[in-house]
Amino acid sequence: MNIARVLGQASVPWLVATAIASSAQAETRGYIISWFGTATQVADFKENCPEDRNGGGAEWMIRDLISIGYPPAQARRIAAGEEMSEGIRQKLSNRAVVNGKHVSVYNYPDAVPDPNIETVTGKYAYGFDLGGANPAAKFEDPETGGKVDNQLWRAIGCTAAFRAEPPELPFPEHVSWTAMLETSPGWSIMISGDDLGKDGDVTVTLDRLTQHPERDANGDIMSAASYIIDPAARSHNELRGRIEGGVLTIEPADIYLQSEMPFYPEIALTNAHMRMKLQPDGKLVGYWGGYFGVLSFNYMMTSRPGHGADAIGIYHAVKKMADADPDPITGQNRKISSTWRVEAVPAYLLQTDGHIVADAVMHTAGVSARVANAGGDE
Amino acid sequence: MKKTLDYGSGRGPGGRPGSRLVTGLVASVAQLALIAPVLAAAPAAGEVPMSWRLGPSQYRQSIAEIFGPSIVISGRFDPEYREAGLLTIGARTASISASGLERYGELARNIAEQVIDEQHRNTLFSCKPQSEDTSDDACAREFLGRAGRLLYRRALTQHELDAKVRLAGEVAGIRQDFYGGIAAVLSDMLLSPNFLYVYKTVERDPDDPQKVRLDGYSKASILSFFLWNAPPDDALLKAAESGELHTRRGLKRQVDRMLASPSLETGVRAFFSDMLGFSEFETLAKDPAFFPRFTPKVISQAQEQTLRTIVDVLLTSEGDYRDLVTIPRTYLTRSLAAVYGIPIADTTDNGQPEHWIAHTYPKDDPRAGILSHVSFVALHSPSGRSSPTDRGKALRELLLCQEVPSPPADVDFAVVQDTTSTVHRTVRERLLAHSTDATCAGCHKIMDPIGLALENFDAAGGYRTTENGAPIDTSGELNGTKFDGPVGLTKALHDDPALTSCAAMKAYAYASGRMPSRTDPALKELQSEFEDSDYNFVELLRQIALSEALYAVPPSAAPRPDVVTAAR
Amino acid sequence: MKSLRSLTRRRVLRGMLAGSAVSVGLPILDCVLNESGTAFAADGAALPTRFATWAWPLGLGEDDWVPKAAGVNYELPTQMRALQPVKKKMNFFTGGQVFLDGQSNNVHFTGLQGLMTGKVANTREYLGSIDALVSEVIGRGTRFRSIEVACAGSPRDSWSARLDSGLQPAEVSPAALYKRIFGPDFQDPNAAEFTPDPDIMLRKSVLSGIKEERQALMSKLGAADKTKLDNYFTSLRELEQKLEVQLQKPQPLQACSRPATPLAQEKLALTLATEAVERHDLFAGLLAHALACGQTHVANLVISRPQSGLRRDGDATAHHTHTHEEQIDPKLGYQVTCRWFTNTYMDALRRFVSTFDAIKEGDRTLLDSMVVFAFTDHGSPRLHSVRNYPILTFGSGGGRIKTGLHIPRPGDQVTRVGLTIQQAMGVQVSSWGVGSNRVTSAISEVLA
Fold first, then answer.
1. Is B191–C311 a contact, with Cβ atoms under 8 angstroms apart?
2. If exposure means fewest CB atoms within 10 Å of the residue's CB, which of A327, B424, C186, C292 is most exposed?
3. B353 → chain A, closest CA residue
């Protein structure tokens, strides 16, 4: 069994170790996150948003035009496309006034009044019980039936942009996620345990990778590609978890994954929970929950205004619904309970020295995608 | 990647010294006179053609060697045809279609435009015209003489050169552009059959006036396209002109030089590309729904993987040819590794071309040897599911030189379509009829058992142990030797004498342009020498290059005393 | 045939479009044509006759697709229902066979070899296909003697071969074909002004340099090499001819208009039948324009090679494999999956033919002055049968053949159809074919 050589120049070919890392665990499976977005719950839109008054792009443009003094009839005409001009666009963008000067509302969203968009009043949302104090603010998870905290969904669930169901991502996330994938490093999930086909305790490790996700011939994220884990500690998360009935959960912990614009600048979840199903086709599909930074969320929303999301309406709604980590001076909650839908496909994970640390298991019959490894333990 | 052209020392980047236009000696009139008068004799009517059409890779290599690798060749070539399993043999009978000539014409104009452009003219021309707005016969003669010798792979005759200089002058006059005149003639030359075809011409043998022999230029072309897949360089042309190639010693000297050159790798790659049928890659496609990891990158990388492996075993290590089918070492990229399901550590920066990384499989890994490469198992598979028949046929024909006959007419597949049977889950089950029906069994039993042993590899090259949920039975047979799975197959193949005798046959056929009969004495001698050398492939190339049979002229070609010599 | 240079033309708009010159021809309507729109007014010369072949893989199926009735009142078999709208302009030949005369049946090849060249041989020689013989007569004087295209990505998918220079490789990219025909060298026949391009004049005269080399070469070569050299010079002559044509004022052609540029395709090799017929539609459009603009009079299209690797989406097994392995449905009497392919191709054939029929030339259509010759490798491919070949023709070739007929010729040489079509197209030949495939009389009920 060859242990691979020391990291050299990128151009030096080296022998690759063909044995799995010897660790205390008997099996380690690797994945790369192929899908990450807000966990939407769209089936009950009518119950969620009985007023249905948020509308779409036209509606919030009309609202914003009215807020800067346009008569409603003219605002409707402008939003319909007549009379729209670059000048009006500029006026809309720069309607915030700070120190007497007109500035971009996307940089100073607090300088305009809360448009007070409709927020979710329905019963269902995906998530986890994060210990939120107010029972009235909890939703019921349609999958588990449990009471869950998901104020983020409450804030954004009635907007047109977030009315999307898998395989569709909400539009702003879709655009940003796709743009990020092409140029930014991916995230890995590693699960180690005695036998991942059976119930038992496991270790879950989240990391950032040095390479961006590879696409396959269909344009999806490729399964069974090899990735090298970024050794930087910042995005390294070791979590204790458990597999039961084919579902992975973790003991609540804080998670941090460095991210890139144009997506959320960081995936930082405090009191993070997780449930992910190990599907027969080898994929992981499920949910992460936890408290997410209000600024992080809103930063992405306002940095690409007009990308199918009512950025200002959302900004204010999220601030209002935020339910944790109050600012010591202002009292404004800086974090919001949230749930994210996550998918991951099998991937080989290696360290920078070439050491293989995780296997890509394509089918949960336990048959590795690999041919045979040195120990003959296939 | 910028390459600096160092023409001062006569070496181009990565090129052979002295092959470039700038550094070739002028084929002066004096030298022309030294060439033995060429008898305008024609070998007997109805013979197999001795000449061949330049293949696309030979065309590209010629332009790169003569005008430099910075000349961009953007165009399509007439498709090549295989005969007796080799494109080089097909090239012997290939003509150029009307649409093909159109394309060659465009290519020629395009190349000529680049040769005379501001960037290239300073390095490729060793003279400057008196005035750029009109003709300059002396400079035209200098350039066209040198270019012509390298393009036509022989010195131009006085008459030819005069005609070209005249034409260049006329065009220069009409266009008021010296370089425009050169470009017109150059594009003509690139379209001429003298360039597009490699002709073999004969002369009277001075040692035996009753006989004819190939002239020196013809020998030079045979040698250089065989060993380097490129036209003769200046040194080889000089050896032809001086008569050196007609002597045993002189020939040996040139062969040694060529085998020691880095250009040998180009030639060996070209040979194996042809022998292993890589032209099929042009139309290779796999259904992405079934094979998502088979991305477009994989198609070109797959060829490179196998060629690198071959070069590694046969040239770098000068190893035993048979090891090609059992060697556990190969080269992978990240994309190829994904197809094979192998983890690999590649630190290529995002967006850059992938690195090639040496990879060694463990002992007795089913992936050892080139049979497991995408270039074999995926190339000889349809776009959806795998076909053991295809793979068995390919192995027989490409590696063992054993022809498989066409299927018979009016084959009745009723046996396969038994209405009472359940769905056949594995290919083995589906192919059972091939082995039980008398009309089918004769041929299929020499193909299917080989391919069935490779069924662990799906149509894209990935490894599997089950098909549609049923486990795959990989027992097979080759010429009486039974085995289970790819490891057994490759071992049986390694020990099969046909593997090495076929290599010798293909290499000889590739060099000579015709498939020898199995009893051909020259072939038998080559095969015996190959065995004696422990199947050293470079030695095989040497033996072929030095064999008299390679330069043989059909015996019926007799000199015609009444024909005027062509010396001009 | 080039006698119409003195006609007056209308001015052509020339504009610069995205940096490349584009000419938009204003159609010349009846002032050029005679009163009945059937001929050029100036000298009564007939509109040029055009010819096209269309090859599809793997026949019509294992059921009995021969209509019971002969003549005009016959019913199309179900797999050809898509052709109902064009039935009146169609002829359906059935029953013809290829005789092997002891040669082996190289499946998916020998039948076509016989049908298209009149000769079967173990050597797989393939020379002088029907379209090449026809193009000898009607293909001179156009910029391209013929144009070959193939829809699945391989240039070797071609059944067109000249007598003297062999198989013509096919164009596989619509974008490349567009560039070749309608790119910078395109001369609009409806252009008012015509000035020969001096560059082309120069190119043509410079080619003489190559011709001068011929004598010297010929004297040094063996017979087989000389033949190859001859083939080369045949192709060179065609190249010269192309240039020559471009130096002359083209005839006006009412129906000529430059088509839209197809987008360049990324991948050339296709594996799905639906993709191949999409590419087929692009080619059909381009060929129709090329024919209408007089760039060529002969076009040849092949869907894919007979051992078709084309598949249905989601099915790993190719059409060809299905023809051998799929069960014949006992109730329906045919193979269901194979039928899907045949339906797809017949649909494509209808579109092909309709594309030509949609181009008006006077009171007729382009199709009316054409013959489209559609053929396949085996009528019933499951058993590689060389009996009972279906051949479909469309168009009357300018009134030279009758249409709307089912012509059953059970047991007859299928080469008789080829002879009939050649004669209709003006090939001066009284017999065709070799050995048992030789025929000396045409099918008179089809000739007008």
1. no
2. A327
3. A11
Count CB atoms within 10 A of the CB of residue B82: 16
Return the pLDDT at B562.
38
Q: Which amino acid is at A49?
A: C
Residue contact B199–C318, C-beta within 8 A: no
Mean pLDDT of B215-243: 96
- Contact, C408 vs C66, CB < 8 A? yes
CATH of C48-173+285-446 among 3.30.230.10, 3.40.720.10, 3.40.50.620, 3.30.70.580: 3.40.720.10
Reported as a single tens digit per residue, the pLDDT across C196-251 is 777 777 777 777 778 777 877 787 777 777 877 888 888 888 888 888 887 777 77
Q: Where are the domains of chain B?
A: 20-200, 202-261, 286-494, 497-551
**Judged by CB atoms within 8 Å, which residues 391-450 of B form the interface with C?**
406-413, 416-417, 419, 430
Per-residue pLDDT tens digits for A26-66: 899 999 999 999 999 988 888 889 998 888 778 888 888 99
Interface of B with C in 204-243 (CB under 8 A): none
Per-residue pLDDT for B509 more than 90? yes
Quickly list DSSP for C154-184: -TT----EETTTEEPPPB--HHHHHHHHHST
Flag if C206 and B412 touch (Cβ within 8 Å). Answer: no
Task: Look at chain A and count its residues.
Answer: 378
Residues of B (152-181) whose Cβ lies below 8 Å from C? 157, 159-160, 163-164, 167, 171, 174-175
Q: Which residues of chain A have pLDDT under 50?
A: 1-23, 366-378
How is residue A133 written in tokens? 């104090």
- The shortest CB-CB distance from B193 to any of C104, C207, C232 is to C232
Inspect the interface and report whether the beta carbons of A217 and B349 lie closer than 8 Å.
no
Contact B204, B567 (CB under 8 A): no
Position B201 confidence tier, pLDDT thresholds 50, 70, 90: confident
Whether chains B and A touch (3+ CB pairs under 8 A) is answered by: yes
Among residues 7-66 of chain B, which lie with CB inside 8 Å of chain C?
Answer: 38, 40, 42-51, 53
Which residues does chain B have within 8 Å of residue C269's beta carbon, measured at their own beta carbons? 282-285
> For residue B163, what is the nearest residue in chain C, using CA coordinates?
C209
Which pLDDT score is estimated for A305? 62
Contact assessment for residue A268 and residue A255, using Cβ atoms and an 8 Å cutoff: yes
**pTM (two decimals):** 0.79
